[in-house]
Design goal:
Two copies of one chain form a homodimer. By secondary structure, the first copy, chain A, is of the alpha+beta class. Chain A is 42% helix and 22% strand. Chain A is built from eight helices and eleven strands. A four-stranded antiparallel β-sheet of chain A has the order 1-8-3-6. Chain A has a four-stranded antiparallel β-sheet with strand order 2-7-4-5. The radius of gyration of chain A is 18 Å and the shape is globular. Chain A starts with a helix and ends with a helix. At the A-B interface, strand 5 and helix 4 of A face strand 5 and helix 4 of B. Chain B binds a DNA duplex (30 and 30 nucleotides) through helix 7.
Chain lengths: 240, 240
DNA sequence: CGACGCTTTGAGGTTACTCAACCAGGGTGG
DNA sequence: CCACCCTGGTTGAGTAACCTCAAAGCGTCG
């Protein structure tokens, strides 16, 4: 449950100086002044997670909020019979713990090696109360998340398997671009099963659809990613 | 586009005195003091919409935010080829225009006769800047919306048609309860097509599944609604 | 080398979709 | 008053997209 405490490497402290944080500009912290960053830095606890390590589980009491600084996190909900829906992948700069209730609404675990800043909820709440512009920024993030969620609902409810995959790949490319990692080769650190559970498909359908897209020369499948060979055609499919 | 201006009845003013607003306690306005309510009242413009009238469309410049005081609104996204996904139904007390960008992220139109308070965006933004606790309340609403959206993603991606309907009916019952309208007979002012577009199904599947539930004596279909005859069984299906 | 985890491929089945007809209620107009 | 239509809902038959089950590749690691 609190394995993140165990995972918190002592030596990680230096890397997470808020002033030099790579993820800062893409995160909520971008709204803070240098002196505010110093107070933030004092309460930030750098944590690291191994691939597949649990950050938190749904229903768990929320004692911390997290700011991802490196790696990818999957956020998901589960049904008692094992069906899983991934509601989002968190990338560097993303903020976890928005729900503001005293317990997490989703579960989260690391897809690959993840680094994050953990803020104790009490100190964090005090800071938010004192800094309206931070709250404002947080609210902007929340509404952005909501917009993404609505887009995902459209995808889950009304799109075909091929459209789902194409939208997913283009979406991931855009999201990597936002954290300064634009490339025609989209990194996909998550498994096929993760992709399936994000798109409301089975692993077999994901695999088949990707190979079909590869046969069409729309994409090229590479280790841990996909190279987009025909972005125009993909954009057309995504728009339709 | 701005038909809401046309629809704004002159006589509606009296009904929307913020101090006597029926929807207030369930809305963002619950966080305001009496004197703040008076300043709010001064900037609120009461508007009414006929069934099927448009409140706003996706991409339109957002000049107002809305607080629903009566009736039901559907919020949806469309694909160019006509496929529609309803991302939510707004009930009295719900707040529309959270997105905070200068344009709406979804379209909205009235399901039945709707009354709302419209706040000009500029005055509204000023008020939010001046009242951090209002922003806080707004943020709580946004995160609550996000939680609902994530639950809906689970439903859209991983549930069967029957589960979708059962969850929908139980969810509507709960939501009506929150605005003080709890009843074992759930009002469904929206059409079967609306329900289908909300649950990621076709109208035929919705109709068939509802009649099957009625044959099972799980529900009883009544005009403009459904009576829940076996809530325990429904809760079991929804949990599974 | 063999075991394991993950992915891909194949064959067959099922759920939900498509297309089409039918039904019921509520106007409307002859 | 009743035929007519129009909208929204239900029902039926056939289909297709996607799922399920099963087996075979294919790197990685002990």
């Amino acid at each position: 449950m609190d394995c993140h405490l165990v995972n918190a490497g002592i030596g990680a402290r230096a890397e997470c100086g808020c002033l030099t944080c790579e993820a800062r500009l893409a995160s909520v912290c971008a709204s803070l002044s240098p002196e505010e960053l110093i107070t933030l830095d004092a309460m930030a606890r750098p944590v690291r997670f191994e691939p597949k390590a649990t950050l938190f589980v749904q229903g768990q009491h929320a004692d911390c909020v997290y700011n991802i600084t490196a790696g990818v996190v999957r956020l998901y909900k589960m049904l008692p019979d094992g069906r899983r829906q991934i509601v989002g992948f968190a990338l560097p700069g993303d903020f976890l713990g928005l729900s503001m209730h005293d317990s997490f609404g989703v579960s989260a675990d690391a897809v690959d090696a993840v680094a994050a800043c953990a803020f104790p909820l009490t100190a964090y709440a005090r800071l938010v109360d004192a800094k309206p512009h931070l709250l404002r920024r947080l609210h902007e993030f929340a509404t952005h998340e909501l917009t993404l969620a609505q887009e995902q609902m459209l995808l889950l409810g009304r799109r075909t398997a091929e459209e789902k995959l194409v939208c997913f790949l283009l979406g991931m490319q855009q999201r990597w671009a936002k954290v300064g990692k634009f490339s025609v080769t989209v990194p996909l650190p998550m498994s096929r099963q993760d992709i399936a559970d994000f798109l409301g498909l089975t692993i077999e359908t994901v695999s088949r659809t990707l190979t079909r897209l590869a046969k069409d020369k729309t994409i090229l499948i590479v280790p841990d990613g996909v190279r987009l060979m025909n972005v125009d055609h993909m954009a057309l499919v995504a728009a339709a």
